[in-house]
Amino acid sequence: MYIHQVAAYLPAHVITNKHFTHLNGLSHEWIIERTGIRERRKAAKGENTNTMAIDATERVLAAAPQFPATDVDLIVGATYTPHDTIYTLAHAVQRAIGVPDIPVVSISSACSSLLNAIEIVEGYFAMGKARRALVVVSEHNTAYNNEHDTVAGHLWGDGAAALLISKDRLAPTDLRMVDLITAGAGGVGKADVAVTLKPVEKGIVMPFGKDVFLNACQYMANVTRKILERNQLAVTDLDWLIPHQANLRITRNVLQALDLPEERAVSNIERLGNTGCAGAAIALADQLDQIKPGERVVITVFGGGYSYGAMLLER
């Protein structure tokens, strides 16, 4: 199974930390110290989870002449910030690219949904039900966010990414998916209350950020070690680590636990904020052309709820 192409879409509107200084009195320096975030993107009027997913899809298809839209035989969408819970982002993408009568699935496991979406593709491929899949991850966090929340209101940004995945190698530059692990940790710590987004309440809430921080650091480091070990690889064999883009302190903590230098990590949190399940895919899109033949990449994620995973890729 191969990732043939990845592309991202980011809204044009940039929200700097000054916005939250004026709104809540949170200083630029305070936000950077605790999160690493300098700015984030905000969807414009008329943009939403579905439109961003379509934009990312159009970009990835334009970059992949060997993978025309008519070849797509499976669409898997992922988000925890849906524009519509009935006509999902996957359905919107299907309509946009005009491929009828194929499996169309949308899922949510918070910020770890990217890997769950790819695992669904793995299952369809294994069963012989698809050969060329489109995975789309999109988050419209600012539609749900309460900016006046001084605990987490400054964390969130909007964005989307799309991945073209094939059962067979289409080009020498394709990334081979060597292994994939996902799991839930819903019974751990304060998983049930640490991060919530309830329709009848006030948007995204994170009352137990410390619990999220500690578990994210632990699970992402542990699952990275696990996927390397079960493929007879050492941490020193890893060329790039793409962690869930939640907090720069989490990334640095994971790197320290793995004894990896900071330059091995791919990070976009500084300029995009937390873009949910789209964050790691956007980072992969940014890094794609810099991955050299023979290099190995691990994408590791952690989501509220809790859920986690890791994927090992090789060019």
UniProtKB/TrEMBL annotation:
A GO molecular function held by the record: 3-oxoacyl-[acyl-carrier-protein] synthase activity
Keyword match Transferase: yes
Keywords: Acyltransferase, Transferase
Keyword Acyltransferase set for record: yes
InterPro entries documented for this protein: ACP_syn_III_C, ACP_syn_III_N, Thiolase-like
GO biological process, one term: secondary metabolite biosynthetic process
Classification via PANTHER family: 3-OXOACYL-[ACYL-CARRIER-PROTEIN] SYNTHASE 3 (PTHR34069), BETA-KETOACYL-[ACYL-CARRIER-PROTEIN] SYNTHASE III (PTHR34069:SF2)
Annotated Beta-ketoacyl-[acyl-carrier-protein] synthase III C-terminal domain residues: 228-314
Protein name, as recorded: Ketoacyl-ACP synthase III
Pfam family name, one: ACP_syn_III
All residue ranges annotated as the Beta-ketoacyl-[acyl-carrier-protein] synthase III N-terminal domain in the record: 107-169
Domain of life per record: Bacteria
